[in-house]
User: Fold this.
Amino acid sequence: MALECPKIQTELPGPKAKVWLQRDRDSVSPSYTRAYPLVADRGEGCQIIDVDGNRFLDMTAGIAVTATGHCHPEVVAAIKMQAEKLLHMSGTDFYYAPQIELAERLGEFMPGPGPKKVFFCNSGAEAIEGAIKLARFQTKRQNIIGFYGAFHGRTLGALSVTASKAVQREYFFPLLTGVYHAPYPDPYRIPGGMTPEAYATYCVDWIRDTLLGRMVPPSSVAAILVEPMQGEGGYVVPPHNFHRELKALCEEHGILYIADEIQSGIGRTGTFFAIEQFGVVPDIITVAKGIASGLPLGAILSRAEIMQWPPGAHASTFGGNPVACMAALVTARLVTDHLMRNAATQGEYLRAQLRSLQSRHRLIGDVRGLGLMTGAELVRNPATKTRATDERNAVIETAFHQGLLLLGCGANAIRWSPPLTVTREELDVALRIFASALETVERRMP
Ligand SMILES: Cc1ncc(COP(=O)(O)O)c(C=O)c1O
Assistant:
C-alpha cells in the first residue's frame, strides 16, 4: 500500500492552527525555538497529524525523543496499565518495582564490567546537573572541562558547560565557575591540511598542554564532559581516535569521563550507546530524550563505586516516575529487540541517499552521522564552506510546506533524527521532498 503521507489539505498554518498560534503568542514564553508553525494533534509512528488534519512525515521524533515512534501501541499500553495502578509515590522517599527494574536494565546496557548504579531525574539538563555534582562529590575536585559546540542543556550548571550558541548564554552570567572549554574535532572543518586523526590528537593535546598545563592543574579537574557525537552543535562525528585518546588522558590524571548520551543514546546511533562505537568505557553516562519514548525521564549511570553518596546528597521528587519507568522498560525491550538494528541499517541508507543528493545539489557541503543521528551541512559554496544559515532555514520551511518535518542543528546543518521505527519507504518519500526543497531554495540563489 502506498504511503498516504504527507497529506496537506489546508494552507499552512491551517485555520485551527492559526487560532492556537495566536493563543500561544499571548500566553507561552517566546524563548522556545519554533522553526515553523506546526500545531501537532496526534502522532502515529513516523507521522504527525496537525489540528487541521494535515498529515506530516516526521524526521525529528520531537528532537530525537520518540524512539519507538509516536504512540507505539506497546508503550501506550504499558503507560495505561501503570497509570491505573500507581501514578506517583516519589522514588526519592519510597520504593517501587518499575524504578528498580529499569535501573537493573540500564545497568546491563552500560559498557564495562562490574556492578552499576543509576540515579533518576526528569530531563537531560537535570541529568547533566547531577553528573557534575556526582563527579565533584566522587573526586572532591571542582573543575569541569567541556567542548566548544557542545550542548548539555539550559539550567545554570548545564548551561555553563554548553557552548553551542551565544544566545543561549546571553544575560545569564555569572555561570558556574571552574568550567573550561576545548576544541571538538569537526572533520569537515579541519584547519590546514591535517588528517582527521591528527586533528583529534591535536584537540586532546590542546587539553593536555593548554588547559591542564597552563590553566587548571589536573588534580583540580573532576570530569571531562563530552558528547560522543555533537548533537545540537551540528551532528558532528569526531574522528575515531578522539574518544580513546581523551579517555586515556582522563585515566592518566584520575579525571572522570562523562559521556552525554542524552541525544545519542538508547539505540539512536545503531548501538545502545554511541560511545560503544568508539571503543571507550565511560565512568558516567547521562541519558534522557529517547529513554521513555516521549515521557519525561532522565538518568545518570555509573560504575557502582562512583555513585557512592549519602542519603540527601542528591534527589528529585518526580525523577524515575513509575509511569515513565514503565514506558522506558518497554522502550528498552523494543530498541534492543530490533529497533537498534533498524537504526543502523536505515541510517546507512539515509546517508548514502543524502550523499547521492550531494552530487546534484551544491548546497549540501557535508553528510555525516551514526545510525539515525544523521546530518547534512548546507554551505553557499563547497570550496569555501561558507555557512548557508538562511538557506538552511529556507529549506526546512519549504519542506514543512510540503509536509516534511525537519529541524536544524548547529549554524547551518539539518538534522535527520526520525523515530527508530522509520522504514525505507518513509525515508524515500522524505528524501524526495528534501530534494525538491533544496531545488526550490537553490533556484533563488545567485
Ligand atoms: C546532548 C544533550 N545533552 C543535554 C540536553 C538537554 O536535554 P533537555 O532539553 O532534556 O534538558 C540535550 C537536549 O537537546 C542534548 O542534546
Observations:
- The pocket of pyridoxal-5'-phosphate is lined by residues 123-125, 128, 151-153, 227, 231-232, 260, 262-263, 288 (CB under 6 Å).
- The two ends are 41 Å apart (CA to CA).
